[in-house]
Amino acid sequence: MAQKPSIPKGTRDFSPIEVSKRNYIISIMRKHFENYGYQPIETPSFENSETLMGKYGEEGDRLIFKILNSGDFLDKVPVEELQTVNYKKLTGKISEKALRYDLTVPFARYVVQHQNEIEFPFKRYQIQPVWRADRPQKGRFREFYQCDADVVGSTSLWQEVELVQLYDSVFAELGLNVVMIKINNRKILSGIAEMIGASDKLIDFTVALDKLDKIGEEGVKKEMLEKGISENALEKVQPLFNFTGTIEEKIEKLSVLLSNSEEGKKGIEELKFICDNVSKLGLKKAVLDLDVTLARGLNYYTGAIFEVAAPKEVAMGSIGGGGRYDDLTGIFGLKNMSGVGISFGLDRIYLVLDELQLFPETVIGSTKVLFLNFGESQAFEAMKAISALRNQNIKAELYPDAAKIDKQFKHAERRGIPYVVKEISNDLFTLKNLKTGEQKQTDWNDLISELK
User: Fold this and answer.
1) CA nearest neighbour of 146 among 377, 349, 317, 414
2) Domain range 16-355, its CATH number among 3.30.565.10, 3.40.50.300, 3.40.50.11740, 3.30.930.10
């Protein structure tokens, strides 16, 4: 007996309805990306390992899917090394490529490699799958799409203002009325680490702080202590765990807290510019809020950082995020090329829209009319009509076999096809509406009018 086929954990098959819904989300994103002047690019699904490794921090590196070298991948490894437990050293010899972890690092590689062909500032968008060896759970997959928009070649904070507006425009058209866009600045986090005497532990500090909504205050403190951050430092950082008020009030508190940190004060100044101008320009549906615990545990962020929370009615993690990365292209040899970008989590956005029943009925976009098959002669007449309907952008098809009429009707019903043409006679069409049960004879012009 053949073994039942399966797919890897953390991956999914998508039905025609699911693909139609995903395409609906992507079409809205693509429209707004292009309205804002972003141009599309694509990069390979896998990169050279050295392109990806070391760019996401220790935790990110562990989640990168490595690809074994083709052929005998152990051929070049000495026998004595196979007997050791130094997997990092071994991995480098048996795997030279890896599936991309996100779209930002490959984009930085793209910019460096094509710098002589690009007109800067360069605004790009990219909608492609990424892979992470994460533990699968609701809203977290091992293969998923990212939808990114980035600008490189400009240090202007107007780019951050515009990216907040872009988030707002997309989510407003998708019907998500109350979306929280959280903002912070890595310079503020650096200033806080400096203030508590933990500058040498900045990465450990930010990675732990970023987990506040997942493991709570005590969990964060425990992790910081385990990473060598002192009890005295934790006392100084205590105000961050209950940082409330309006954006203006929070900025005022930060100004007092970081009065002795030049880096922190620069971060506050940048935050104030972005928040003030977003407020003056206004947002359609989204709400902007300052979250001082937001860290986005990726090492390459250097300025503003963003995270978009799902509506409160849905138990879901973030549905978007991003930030400023002044030094990212520098790791590939191109200095002084500042960038900033945001990402939309397509799969999570899909789950949110589905749970809140926000997909329009028209999204499914199935065949509009099915012509029944009564045999070869009428099938030919049906195909002539079907071809003409398709030229009118009406989705039409012929049931391929001259099967029992009841079977053909049931096929249309199961497919969700709303209309059936039962008969063609003397240039008249017997049209049945399967939703209402109404049946009538129409001429060609009335048929088109009814189906449109």
Assistant:
1) 349
2) 3.30.930.10
The CA distance from 299 to 296, in Å, is 9
Task: Tell me how far apart the alpha carbons of residues 306 and 266 are, in angstroms, rounded to a whole number.
Answer: 17
228 Cβ contact list (under 8 Å, min separation 6)? 201, 204
pLDDT per position as a tens digit, 118-169: 999 999 999 999 999 998 887 688 999 999 999 999 999 999 999 999 999 9
Lowest mean pLDDT among 95-104, 147-156, 165-174, 218-227: 218-227
User: Long-range contacts made by residues 317-322, C-beta under 8 angstroms, separation at least 24?
Assistant: 317/139, 317/140, 317/348, 318/345, 318/348, 319/179, 319/344, 319/345, 319/348, 319/349, 319/352, 320/167, 320/344, 320/345, 320/349, 321/296, 321/345, 322/148, 322/163
| Residue type at 378 in one-letter notation | Q
pTM of the model: 0.85
Asked if omega into 400 is within 30° of 0 (cis), the reply is no
What local confidence, expressed as pLDDT, does residue 125 receive?
98
**Which CATH code for domain 366-451?**
3.40.50.800
**What's the token pair of residue 349?**
């956005």
CA–CA gap between residue 155 and residue 120 (Å, rounded): 12
Whose tokens are 């039962």? That residue is: 422
How far is 240 from 220, CA to CA, in rounded Å?
12
User: According to CATH, where is 3.40.50.800 located in the chain?
Assistant: 366-451
- Contact assessment for residue 300 and residue 203, using Cβ atoms and an 8 Å cutoff: no
> 3-class DSSP state for residue 90?
helix
